[in-house]
Structures are given as structure tokens and as C-alpha cells.
Amino acid sequence: MHEEQLPARTVHCPYCDTRFSMVVDPSQGSHESWEDCPQCCAPIHFKVEVSPLSGDIESLVVGADDDVI
After folding, report:
1. Which Pfam families has this protein been placed in (predicted)?
2. What are all long-range contacts of 53-57, with beta carbons under 8 Å and residues at least 24 apart?
3. Which of 17, 26, 38, 64 is buried most deeply by CB count within 10 Å?
């Protein structure tokens, strides 16, 4: 899947509250990842839940690196 076809979500950094757009690849299925905030460079924990039936993104949870999400 090409990046321009992937769904984007607007999220807030849990550290500095900067809003930014994040591209999410639902073809990976449900997964967790870490990305650095584009403003403060703090590590952000993302948890993506994807429906096994439809392949649609059901939820995207954002937390600080040490949060249990």
C-alpha cells in the first residue's frame, strides 16, 4: 500500500501537547509502536487496534513512553 493511500490520524503529544498527523498502516494488523514527537522529540507509545474482519482501524491509543496502554 502506498503511503499516500494510508489513513492519517491527528494525535497530541502526551508531553508537550503538540498536534501532529500520523500515518497508520492497518495492513500490519493490531500492533504497538514508538515514534518521537516532531516538536519535543520525546518517545510516544502508540497502540493500534485493527479489526481482523474488516481491516479497519478500530482505535489508536497514544501515551507517554512509560504509560501502560
Report:
1. Zn_ribbon_21
2. 55/26, 55/27, 56/26, 57/7, 57/9, 57/24, 57/26
3. 26
Cβ neighbours for 17, distance < 8 A, ≥ 6 positions apart? none
Name the nearest CA neighbour of 46 among 26, 28, 24.
24
Coil, helix or strand at residue 6: coil
pLDDT in tens, 21-67: 998 888 889 999 999 999 999 999 999 999 999 999 999 999 998 87
Please spell the DSSP secondary structure of 23-58, one letter per residue: E--GGG-SEEEEEE-TTT--EEEEEEEE-TTT--EE
